[in-house]
Amino acid sequence: MARYNPKEVEPKWRRRWEDREVFRTRDDAARPKYYVLEMFPYPSGRIHIGHVRNYAMGDVVARYKRACGFNVLHPMGWDAFGLPAENAAMQTGAHPEAWTRKNIADMRAQLKALGLSIDWSREFATCDVEYYRWQQKLFLDFWKAGFVERRESYVNWDPVDMTVLANEQVIEGKGWRSGAVVERRKLNQWVLKITDNAEDLLAAIDDGRLKDWPENVRAMQRNWIGKSKGARFRFRFAPGTPAPAGFDGVEVFTTRPDTLFGASFVAVAPDHPLAAHFAASDPSLAAFIAECQKSGVSAEAVETAERKGRALPVEVSHPFVKDRTLPVWIANFILMTYGTGAIFGCPGHDQRDHDFATRYGLPIIPVVLPEGEDPQTFSVAKEAFTGDGALYNSGFLNGLSVEAGIEAAIARLEQQGVGRGETQWRLRDWGVSRQRFWGCPIPAIHCPTCGVVPVPEKDLPVKLPEVAAEEFKTPGNPLARTPAWLNVPCPDCGAAARRETDTFDTFVDSSWYFARFAAGRPDRPVDRAAADYWLPVDQYIGGVEHAILHLLYARWFARAMTATGHLSVDEPFRRLFTQGMVTHATYRDSRGQWLFPEEVVIEDGRARHAATGDAVEPGPVEKMSKSKKNVVAPEVIADSYGVDAARWFVLSDSPPERDVEWTEAGVNGAWKLVNRIWDLAEPHKGALAGLRPPAGSSELRRATHAAIAGVTDDIEHFRFNKAIARLYEFLNVLKRADAAAEADRAEALHALVRLIAPFTPHLAEEVYEHLGGQGFVCDAPWPKADEALLVKSTVVLAVQVNGKRRGEIEIAADATTAEAEKAALALEEVRRHAAGGVKKVIVVPGRIVNIVAA
RNA sequence: GCGGACGUGGCGGAACUGGUAGACGCAACGGACUUAAAAUCCGUCGGCCGAAAGGCCAUGGGGGUUCGAUUCCCCCCGCCCGCACCA
Length: 854
What we know:
Layout: H1 6-19, E1 33-38, H2 49-67, E2 71-73, H3 83-92, H4 96-112, H5 129-144, E3 148-158, E4 163-165, E5 170-171, E6 174-175, E7 183-192, H6 198-206, H7 215-225, E8 227-235, E9 250-254, E10 265-268, H8 273-279, H9 283-294, H10 299-304, E11 309-317, E12 325-331, E13 342-345, H11 351-360, E14 368-369, E15 390-391, H12 402-416, E16 419-425, E17 430-431, E18 433-434, E19 444-447, E20 451-454, H13 483-486, E21 487-489, E22 496-499, E23 503-504, H14 506-509, H15 513-519, H16 528-534, E24 539-543, H17 549-563, E25 576-579, E26 582-588, E27 594-595, E28 600-603, E29 606-609, E30 617-623, H18 634-641, H19 643-652, E31 660-661, H20 664-681, H21 699-716, H22 720-736, H23 742-756, H24 761-770, H25 787-790, E32 794-801, E33 804-812, H26 817-825, H27 828-833, E34 838-844, E35 848-853
Parallel strand pairs: 1-2, 1-24, 10-12, 24-25, 26-31, 32-35
Antiparallel strand pairs: 3-4, 3-7, 5-6, 7-17, 8-9, 8-16, 10-13, 11-12, 14-15, 18-23, 19-20, 19-22, 21-22, 26-27, 26-30, 28-29, 32-33, 34-35
This protein binds one RNA strand through helix 7, strand 9, helix 10, strand 13 and helix 11.
């Protein structure tokens, strides 16, 4: 028997697919389209097993949809700008572009070796001038449409990467990439006004437009956008206190204006202007403010920080109660960046205010009475009550619910002319300026007389200049040191001017690549007709680490591109799937050094060092990472088992949304499977030649059609592990079907080869050819299950007595309830267990018979 | 603290809208083939009692609804993820 040799077979089929341009996609309005997209990779230089899993999933869907008759778009490209290229330049002296291009070439070869059904003719990198020039055009259109602003603002400055970070890129006060503690700096920034769309970005999460997104991602986006409805209003300074010059009271934001009668103080942030005003003449206040600003923003610091404050020498009037005044404090738990940087404290119904009031002896007044509580005995002395109830101690609000109270309070504030209802957002506008070289230049020119002017469209692209590799060894941005590029005449007045030296955040690059894949054109960003055909992406697949940033920005870009006439979709990704990670065991030697898996041998369940024989300490199973050395190289796996086995394994063991642990035993099992399929098909050379549709019902035919129905349903629902389990079941039946009729066997093999094709495409082609199939199996139509063969003529029903299984009966599928009952009661075991008499019999046709006995 | 997901054999995991818990795979064990090993093939495989037939227990724990609960409801416990002094 010929052995299956993936080393020969796999490259052979990849060559044939490529020679025949099998996966080349053409726009074809007559056919239904299906756009499958996996998040494109950053060209780090090597693919890892996580990529294999991600792209294998997309490939299963793409190949399956192709077979179902869809015109499938499945492209690939490179998220190619960004800091690592500049870091590499600093360390190795390679130019960022050369480094990036080399990495792309390496990774392209590795990805191609996976046998993915990708239309490589659409490939591009975001650092291609032909891509980023159209990004500049989009930016100019956005600018014209009013979506762009230049703002001087405090920014998050990463002192290691020497660049600005978006809020989203600051994690627990540290840079998302460098891990350095982020500083605050004031800079002029280019800003995309994504908050203008906050309402719609939020509404789409819950109005059905994102119904096929995972719940956790929708929740994260909802949190991030962070809508809170409430009131903004002004406390006037109380008569008799010295009103500070230049201030017109204290403006606060609250979501609970209904609790205003319970207010016992007003508090402002340490960096609030009012605090600064008083600190100027009071060193102890200034010291307190400095202390607040020093305290960390880490989770622990926040968790353990005490509520602290200092009273200011000023009081304000209560807007609803004549002659009632409230003290004004600086408090360390008030954020200047949210709302107005000032609040009123209602200790009875907010725990933070309660802590503060307790510490400083401020009054605690309950104003919300939970249902069923007695106003005489109800107390908030120990803990704030934040739930719903009826308002009391609250003047004109008495008796109202919290919700009605909020409305009534806002109405009164408006009537008094001190405030209004307002919605606050946690979402901030998107600062897109980066002080880096390796990015898309922002097409703007700074003129001393005309100010900031857009680069005229006819002058696009603004190309990155040629810069010597050594330039990157000097900190800072080489663009600012390249006079030939930097100095240009002003497009408006012709005077000497300078180019903008900031480049775009790379999240801009990845915000519209999906549209460029679908509808790229040499003369514009996207072709509207092609975009209308292909978009939205039907299935988007990627890691959950992009749940907020990338996905939110891309959603906004789709809206902005639609508003500027480039697209007609607001939501770019109809279905989203976030796959789990690939994990691997970790190992350390006796000195605590991490070891590569291949350095470790497992004997009798104990880990030893392969070379020295020393004992090895097994660590936890973790996400593969270079630092812990728990990585396996895809090409090594492909070399020993073939990529089909690797693809099969990463999909077989766990549900796709969950992490999967990479084990040698697991991939070895997949390798055995590949061989089993080949060995099973090998003796039946040419079996498909005289293929005639068989008639009648046999065990093999029923198994064949059950497998077709099951695998189809599982792929449709992204349950690849279950699809694979069903294929195993089918194989087990097929293997034992020695006595099956030739026609039945041929039908089974024909179904099998098409069902495995999305998972193990090379093997499927080889088997298909061997069996005498015509053309490519990847072009063959998806098999269709015969409903008649899925219906069983007899069924086995479990028989329970008092809910406990006591036996089973085999009975005609269309047997009546009475017949089933009779057969069940005739069982010996049933008679024994129901000796005391039968009270009732429940028959669920096709399922179960349950006898209720005395 | 808020939000989301989850908890089933030695392991990864199945179980459609409540209806035979443990499909399928891995590991392990026994056997066949082999000089031997690998590969392959056959078989066993949740726990306890039992020679067997069979019985009892069992889906994190405790209650409830139901003829029947891994599935629905309530209360706990544990783990993972995201956000976090957001007023």
